[in-house]
Amino acid sequence: MEHLLFLYCASINHKPIKMKKLFLSLFFIFSSYAFAQNIAFDFAFVDAENINAYDENLKTKFQRINQNFIDDGRILGWHVWKVINGAQSPFTHLAVSIYDMDKMDDDYTPKKWTEEFSDMTESELRGWAKKNGENRKIVFETQMVNVAEVLQEGVTTYPDIAVMNLMKAKHGKYKSYEDLEMATTKSIRKGSLRKGWSLAKRVDRIGTEMAWTHFTVDWFDKYSDFLKSASGPSGDADKNYEKMMDLRDLTNRIVLKKFIFLNK
After folding, report:
1. pLDDT, tens only, 135-172
2. Which residues pair with 84 in a beta bridge?
3. Domains annotated on the chain, with CATH
4. 68-103 burial, b for 16+ CB within 10 Å, e for fewer?
5. What single-letter DSSP state applies at residue 197?
6. Of 56, 102, 103, which Cα lies nearest the Cα of 80?
7. What is the pTM of this model?
């Protein structure tokens, strides 16, 4: 039954003797682990054909499996986000696992699926896994680390809406770009609709052919709050933003809503 683990939404590759790599699935900046030196985030962008069926599989199967991984200390968290109003988006879900790079190569034998789902036969589990694999496609995977984060004063939990801005930093200018981002958002005014801001960078690849190298996230309590914040009068870039545009391109914006949020 080991092969069934490959069919969960972010392609975990567990082997019974050696856990070579954690390819679970969310979000990132979400926990007290975010700034630890060797903490990384594995992102899986998933496109589901039947979203309701995939949601049910996430809730009834993968949530239980990933809770086991958290309880066993293999991962620190597992988060799933759903795209809002994303008919033009190439994916429907974003799944993120949080893991400690110092432990990712430790020996580990995961619990068998037949033991976890004892109400199903092996044949039934194989049939379910086949249907799940046919219903969803992992369109992209990447590994990230957190760079910076600012939360509005009084905000103690991460909001339900994440506005993800994909950035392509100029090659050789990563530090200059990150420094300018952090200097631009040192704090968030109390009472603002935007409750927080985060910056993360990719660590799995580098090069001029990458579509994006970083992302920022603007956090909101409600989708309507994001729309209100974006619907003000248009304006031209000031000098600081012109410097920002010299260092990076904003390639896309995707709005996500929290769906599953497990932490150690």
Report:
1. 999 999 999 999 999 999 999 888 999 999 999 999 99
2. none
3. 2-141 (no CATH), 147-260 (3.30.70.100)
4. ebbeeebbbbbbbbbbeeeeebebbbbbbbbbbeee
5. E
6. 56
7. 0.84
